[in-house]
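Appendix B. Chain record.
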Amino acid sequence: MRRCISWIVQERQEAKRQQNQGDNAMAQLRALIISLLAIAVAACGADNDAQPDPQSKTPPNILLIVADDLGYSDIASFGGEISTPVLDQLANEGLRFSNFHVLPTCSPTRAALMSGNDNHVAGMGVMSEFIYPEIAGLPGYVGHLADQVATIPEILRGASYHTYMAGKWHLGEADDQSPYAHGFEQTFTMMNGGGSHWADMRPLSPPQKMIYRRNGERVSSLPDDFYSSKDYTNALIEFIDSDNGDGKPFFAYLSFTAPHDPLHAPAEYIEKYRGMYDGGWDALAANRLASLKKLGLVPDHVEELPGNFMTSDWESLSIDDQRAHSRDMEVYAAMVEYMDMSIGRLFEFLQSNDLYDNTLIIFFSDNGANGAPATAYPGNADGSYLATFDNEIDNRGRASSFVDMGPNWAQASSAPLRLFKSFTSQGGIKSPMIAKLPGRMSSGGGWSDAFLHVTDVMPTMLEAAAVDFPEQLAGRSVRQPTGLSVMPVLLGEKEDVRGDEGIGYELFEMKAYIKQEMKILRLPEPFGTGEWQLYNLEEDPGEILDLSDQHPDLARQMIEEWMQYAETNEVYDHKGYFDELYRKAYGVN
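C-alpha cells predicted for this chain:
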C-alpha cells in the first residue's frame, strides 16, 4: 500500500512536469492512469496505511496551524497538564515528532517556514525590530521576506490552489510586504510581532502601532468583541467556506498569536485553572519532566534540570507575589486551551463539509516559550508604558493588563531543555509538532524521533500536493529550498530523511550547529560561556555536560561546518552588538 501511494505521488509530479513542458497528451494519459490506480488503492485499503480520501478527485487540502511562543511540553499530548483535547485527538490520528526544530524567535522561523530556506537567505537574519545601521540593507537582513525566495502560497496558488491566511504575519508591514502580496488569495492578518489580543489594539511597546490588514487593506478598528484566537479562526472558516464546492483544493494558514504576551484570555477559561499553579515553577518543571519520561521523550537518567541564572526560588517570594505569578500561568494555560478549542471549531467545519478527510494537517509552535520580560521590548526599558496598564491580581489577563510569562515559567514550560525563546539552546528551538496525512495513518498515535527542521515543511507540502518548486517565479530567479520533504517518514517508508546532514543556526549572535545527536553551541556570557560547547542531545537534552574537551576533533569539525554554513548563507558577524543588547534586555550588568 505504501509503495502504491508513493508511486502515485511520484507520478503526479511527473505529470506536472510534462504539462509544464507542453506535453499535454502524455500528462493527461498519465493523470488517467494515476486516477485509476488511486481508485484501486482506495478500494483495497482495508489495512491502516495512510490513504487518500477515496472520493477525492483533487490533490489534498493543506492546513498549517502555528502557535506563537508555545513551550515544548505545554500541550497534553507532549506531557503538559493544559487541557488540549483537540490537539490530542489530532495526535492520535497523526504522527507526533519529538525532534522538530525551529528558529529561536518568531519572524525568522516564519521566514524559513514560508520559503523553505535559512532565515538569512529569506531576509530575516535579524528581526526587523532590531536592525541597526551596520546591517541595514544587507541582503540577509532586510527585515522582511527577500525577493530571492518564493513562498508556499505563491507556488501553490500557481498550481490552482486557493490560498488563505488568518493571524500573525510578522514578515514585513508595508503594502508590498503583506501576505496578500506574497500569494495569499484572502487574508485577515496582524502584521506585527504581537500586541493586545483584544479590540483595543495596544502594541507591545510605544514605538509600535498594531497593524491589521484584510486582503491587503489596512483595518482601522476591530469589533468590540474581538479576541485574536476567535476572530482568526472565524476568518479562516469564512475564507474556506467562500470557495467551498468549486473543486479546487486549498492551502490554509492559521497563525495564532496565542500564547504570545501580553497574556490575555476570556475570564471563564482563566477560572478553569485557578489554583493549578500554586505549587510554583519548580513543581511544574518536575511534573513536566516526569511526564516526558513517561512518554519516552527524555532518558530516565535525566534528573538535573538546566541552570538558569534568571530564575528565582519560588519559596523566597511573598504570598502576594506567588499569587500574582500563579495567576499569570493560569492566564497562559487558558490561552492555550482556548486556542485548542478554536482549532476544534475549524476541524468541525471541515468535517461538516466533507473536507477534513482529504486534508494534510501540520501543527507546531514558532519557537519555545517566551522568558523575556516585557521591559525587553524596544521602548519599554524605563517602565513608563507598562505602568499605564492595570495589573492588579483580579485584572491580570483582561484587556487593560499587560503581564508576561517571565523566565521562571518559561524555563518550566521548556524543562528539561535549556533556556527558552531567543536562544539557540534547545528550549528556544525545539517545538512540539503533529502532522496528519489525509485519510488514515498506520502510524496514527505514534511518535517519530526523526530530526526535522522548519525548512522541511514547504518541501513536504509541495510533495503532498505533487507540485514542483519553480526555478523562476513572476520573472525572478528564486533560491531552491534547502529543507527536505518528510513524506517518506509520514508514509512509514523511512525513519529519517536527513541522515548526517547538519543544520546551522545564527540569530542575535546565538550560534549552533546540529548534526544527528550532536550539537555545537555558542551562547554569549552570561547566558553561556561565550565559547563553543559540545553536547550529546540524546543523552543530555538539557545541554549540561560540555563534551568539547573529551571530543576536541569532533568539536573542531562541527565548528568548521558551522563556519561553512555561515559563509553559504551570508551570515554577518555582529561583533558583540547583540551580546550587549541581550544583557540590557535581561537586566544583566
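Further analysis of this model is presented in Appendix C.
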